[in-house]
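Internal tracking record. Fields below are filled automatically when a chain is submitted to the structure queue. Please do not edit lines marked as system-generated. If the sequence contains nonstandard residues, flag them in the REMARKS field before resubmitting.
Queue: standard
Priority: normal
Entity type: single polypeptide chain
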Amino acid sequence: MPGPTIDLPRRPRPVIPLRFTLACFLALAGMASPRAARAEDQPAAGPATVLSSYGEVNFNRPRSARQAQADLRRFVLGLEHRFDEQTRMAAEVEVEHAVSSADDPGEVEIEQAYVERAFGSAWSGRAGLFLIPLGLLNENHEPTAYYGVERNFVETAIIPTTWREGGLQATVRFGPGIALQGGLTTGFDLSKWDAASAQGRDSPLGSVHQELALARARDPAGHLALDWRGVPGLRIGAAGFAGNGSQGQPGKPRALVAIWDVHARWTPGRFDLAALYARGTIGDTATLNAPLVGQATLLPAAFDGWYVQAAARAWSSGDLVLSPFARYERFDTGRSYADLGPGLTPAPLPAQDVLTAGANFTLARGEVVLKADVQSFPQDHHRDRLDLGLGWSF
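SYSTEM-GENERATED OUTPUT FOLLOWS
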């Protein structure tokens, strides 16, 4: 999954007999030392098949110790195979919450499964199940690639990271560091909205995305993303996604579901600065909400959020790096609701503010990270918590 990662100093590591033995075994098996499956990282003369993995173990302790929780949040295995110099496939299998069964909270899912073909040095296309290029986190969500134990709220509540769709996508690179991605994919299914639960209040689009699981596909959705990296260490971009969320189902009006974002990240020297704004809308929610009046959670007409973040490499020794950071974010999953008449229209939900401060401590050339942070919720200090985490990505 292409995208920026936290820069780390590199130095040769001493040869360890066990690692050397494993490397020899993998070489004989036609594999390389595993890394995240990224086409641009694989030289033409490299091995045809590559394994990768990432995962994280998190501990959260709110003010009430009785609500403290530890979780194997996710464990992912990836596989990439290069069929020839221009064609490769990439796939990832994810297990969430350690155990998946009818009586357990875990899930097993295919996070990506696509074939990609390069057409010269500037053009490429892919088909299958892939991540939507929206925001800074969705395509770059390994725990070693972001600050803090938990993924930020804006890119989980507003942009439903990790968000993937099935379809076709093309990428073209031109000019000084300009990349344009666009395609047609499956979209959202508003019939999945559960007005009796709080899931839609937590993440409006997270509750209606389809993940290519028997996805309704009458109406394709379109996406377009533009990023500029013409200055070393600087990324500026914007992206949008839109499609009919009713999928032609009887009795449902055409309802355009759209989301867009603008983002920037700058890494001058020891510093890492980022900012993002995202906004989503759902059309004709007055008609969609009419039969749901009286239930707990109606469809919002608009929702949005933003954050600013600053981090710095405060200390390093060899491959050990300590990076403190701070992030402030504000998001609203019910910015506005369509008018249903006096006494029936829901009041806009209050915006939520979150201040997160902590540090990432990376080792093993950045492939392992230890994290700690504290989060403050000004609107509800009972939610304030301490977070500890362990993550890896290779």
